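A further point concerns the way the authors explain their paired sequence and structure data. The central task, working out the structure tokens from the amino acid sequence alone, is never made concrete. I therefore recommend that a typical entry be quoted early in the introduction. An entry of this sort, consisting of the sequence and the corresponding backbone structure tokens, reads as follows:
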Amino acid sequence: MPRSGTVSSEEGRNPRPSGRGACQVIRYDNRDCGLSTKFDDQAVDTGRLITAVSSGDISSALAMVPYTLQDMADDGLDLLTALGIERAHVVGSSMGGMIAQTMAITQPARLLTLTSMMSSTGEPEYGRSSAEAQAVVSSPKPADREGYVAAAERELVWASKRYGDPAVLRELAANSYDRAYYPAGVGRQLGAMILGGSRADALRQLRVPTLVIHGLDDTLIDPSGGKRTADLVPGAKLLLIPGMGHDRPRELWPEINDAIEAHTS
């Protein structure tokens, strides 16, 4: 789920104590990826967008992007409403973490808890990508299935150093390609994320119980992004995981799952 969605664990229409076995997990595709709504008639030139942002021409950059991070947060909140769920435990990773934070800021009463994983605050000085990771993000992937799957190995640059596995990355890429190959959405999502702005002031006012999880091997969103998030949110708990990059290797699932279970219980 790092770049494809936010996870919500909900207590159902009739709230009940959380804990093992009490929550139902809901996963969904964000707009412009997977099997969700596409915005084919609103193309975004990623190169032009990055150039505009880098030069400080924010008005031109905003004109290129058809939706905002707030729109994506509203999607998650509207999904809860459509399912008849008043309050939920919301977990998001990477861009999903930014969306989850925005959901909590916008409608804190809808969240039982917030878990923000390998994400950041929207402040440009925190959570910066390494030059190597940025180069991979900026490079277009091959359009053919074989090339797309092979190119997934580039993501080892931000994977967990101890657990990163080229075979796992290729398998994930193959599954993603077969389910919904849609590179056009990346530029629009990237634009919404880049132009989301700083959430620092709003996070200082947040009163939703918050857990922040970040891997110390993360080079796509530097651990300073997670540390800053935890510093800003009053009472937030911070879990920094040695050996974890911008991924969730199976070997670390028990530690991650136990932390989220304890937080939502």
The first helix runs from residue 46 to 54. The beta strands are 6-10, 24-27, 88-93, 111-117, 210-215, 237-241.
